[in-house]
Design goal:
By secondary structure, the chain is mostly helical. Helices cover 39% and strands 0% of the residues. It has 4 helices and no strands. α1 (13-22) packs antiparallel against α2 and α3 (44-51) crosses α4 (55-68). The chain starts with 12 loop residues before the first helix and ends in a 50-residue tail after the last helix. The relative contact order is 0.12.
Length: 118
């Protein structure tokens, strides 16, 4: 039977419950709650069915917790597309090329007049 070894890391099942209720990231809360439910006697397959995860994923969380401790509960972004930048963060997004780097107009074409705004 799969078992969460809280005592190895100096914690209790109630510590997992506390993390499940207070962690800042939803995935961290999900992992802690799954481990807490397993300490309460539920099997990993039932916990997986409740959370919509594959049973091997939940079992992997248990094995990782037993091997690495509570630090493995924290969600870490491992790749994929970067999150969408909010307006407050747009100052960090690289702007388009400055005018000195842009291609000069073609010499045979006349520059078009831009329309004035409304």
């Amino acid at each position: 039977m799969l078992r969460v070894d809280c005592a190895r890391w100096g914690g209790t099942a109630e510590d997992l419950r506390h993390v499940a209720l207070s962690a800042p990231h939803a995935r961290t809360r999900e992992r802690a709650l799954a481990l807490y439910e397993i300490t309460q006697g539920l099997c990993a397959t039932r916990v997986a069915a409740r959370t919509g995860r594959h049973p091997q994923t939940v079992m992997g969380w248990v094995h990782a917790y037993n091997a690495q401790g509570p630090g493995m509960l924290a969600f870490r972004r491992t790749g994929g597309r970067p999150p969408f930048a909010r307006r407050s963060q747009r100052r960090f997004v690289r702007p388009s090329a400055p005018p000195s780097v842009r291609r000069p107009p073609h010499p045979e074409k006349e520059p078009t007049q831009r329309r004035a705004g409304p």
